[in-house]
Design goal:
Blueprint (H helix, E strand, L loop, with lengths): L3 E4 L2 E4 L4 H4 L4 H8 L4 H22 L3 H12 E7 L9 H9 L10 E8 L2 E11 L7 E13 L2 E6 L13
Parallel strand pairs: 3-7
Antiparallel strand pairs: 1-2, 4-5, 5-6, 6-7
């Protein structure tokens, strides 16, 4: 495992470049998705593969070319979205929402942990972020999201975002 280790189920990234390339590292994705329980491993794999596909799409500025196929592959038709900034429920509404995702915000954060129990999976991401209190330094920003999985597809999502005004970034 070059550039990272798994400690108590959480990826610790030692090589800062891995934050930029995690989505292209099968060894990294396999390690984060690993579980001794095959059902848990399958659930974790659905989530990390979806997030990695979105990360590559954003990195490559290819939303128009890829978003429909990604969502169709991973998301149930009757998907329920609990993000207050999303335009509604369903696969087509998710495609509409992701087409508006900012593609100039830098690389998407690395998935460092997925906890799966039953049909729920919690995803933790980590991203070095400029520290507003200490110019020239960064801190590790962690974000959590929860997905419900059914029949091998994402069926529901809860995320950390607050409602924001159009054109404003939510926190």
């Amino acid at each position: 495992m070059s550039g990272f280790s798994i400690v108590d189920g959480i990826a610790e990234i030692d090589d800062p470049e891995l934050h930029q390339t995690w989505m292209d590292r099968p060894d990294y994705i396999d390690a984060v998705a690993a579980s001794s329980d095959p059902d848990v491993a399958a659930t974790k794999r659905i989530v990390i593969d979806f997030v990695a596909e979105l990360a590559r799409m954003i990195r490559d500025d290819a939303a128009e070319d890829r978003i429909h196929d990604i969502v169709k592959r991973f998301v149930a038709e009757d998907y329920v979205q609990h993000d207050p900034n999303a335009p509604g429920n369903g696969r087509e509404k998710l495609i509409e929402y992701l087409r508006r995702a900012p593609l100039d915000a830098g690389p998407p954060p690395a998935v460092v942990n997925i906890i799966a129990e039953g049909e729920l999976a919690s995803v933790m991401t980590q991203q070095p972020t400029p520290d507003p209190l200490i110019p020239g330094s960064t801190y590790d920003w962690y974000s959590l999201a929860v997905f419900r999985i059914g029949d091998g597809r994402l069926t529901e999502h809860w995320g950390p975002l607050k409602k924001s005004a159009p054109g404003k970034e939510s926190v």
